[in-house]
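Researcher: Next entry in the queue.
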Amino acid sequence: DDHGQAEVYLSFDRDEAGHCFIDGTLKANASMICQRCLDATPVGLESALSVKVADGDREAEKIAQDSASELGKLEIVMCEDGEIDLLSLIEDELILSLPIVASHEDEQCSKALNALHEEISESQAKDQGSIKGLDELEKLRQVLKQNSDSGSDKE
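Model: Structure for this entry, 155 residues:
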């Protein structure tokens, strides 16, 4: 499904060193394929955006030097001809916030999957019952063998 809405809140400012930065939050709802039942499942997406804008490689290096304490969480975006493609930036951030594996909650997965789980459980219970039955038959065979052995000793 390629339709939907996203809530985007962005603020644009300059830091103490004069570098342009963008802060904001992104929220959207998406539909993904559940990896257990292969039906569609809704997924809520949220992301915090914090980037600094650089006009070129030199400015990007300067931003990295000026923001050395923030490097772990700092993202630098290059602008071309003084413009940034905000739609691509937002799209990339939302894609990065997608879950690795999408799935329903256990009780929400499809009825077919639940029926399959029940069938497997019943099959396992039958297998365990038949193993117990085989054990009982083995005991009976041993008792009969002992009785036949003790009966042949009398002759």
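Model: The helical segments are 57-66, 86-96, 111-154.
Researcher: Noted, moving on.
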